Every structure is written in C-alpha cells, then in structure tokens.
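JOB MANIFEST
job_type = single_chain_structure
chain_count = 1
residues = 97
[input]
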Amino acid sequence: MTYAAEGLENAELGKEADAESVEPDENGFVIDENGVLTKYTGDAEDVVIPDHVTGIGSYVLQRCNPKSIYIPKSVCEIDPSAFAENRTISWDDDFYY
C-alpha cells in the first residue's frame, strides 16, 4: 500500500462533489466506478472497507471516529486527508504502508 502522492489528480481518488450526489450503500459506503471509496456515512465502531475498494479519497473518513478501520489489500492509494480529524483509530501492529 502506498500513500497518494501530493498533487494526485482528484479524478483518481474521487471528487467530493460527485460523492454528494450518489446514495451510500446499506453500510454507508459510496464507491465510484473506479473502485475508489469517495464517502462514508456510517457510524460503525469497527469500519470494514469492502474488499473491492482500490483507493480511499479525500476526507472520506473525516470526523467519523471509528475505533478501528479494516483496509483490504486491494487498496493501493489513500489520499493524505482521508482520515482528517479522526482521533480514535487504533492501528493494528501489522499495519504497513
């Protein structure tokens, strides 16, 4: 897994405006046609990102404050602001990037 490089195009990691116009699935995820998680509206303590997600867009998990987040191996890009203002995540000891 690599963190998204500075200056990465919004098109690659989803656009917030596009996420606003799409209804979340039953678990609160909005995933675009490229497999990028563009919004999360759920309130689970333990967020499990679906296995087919390939990227996590900007501010997706902002202020949702889950206890933990499972990021599948399919995710290869994470926007640096994806977890902005999120103070309650417990990172697994086996977390690598």
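[summary]
Strands lie at 2-3, 29-31, 36-40, 46-48, 55-56, 68-70, 77-78.
The chain has one domain: 2-78.
exit_status = 0
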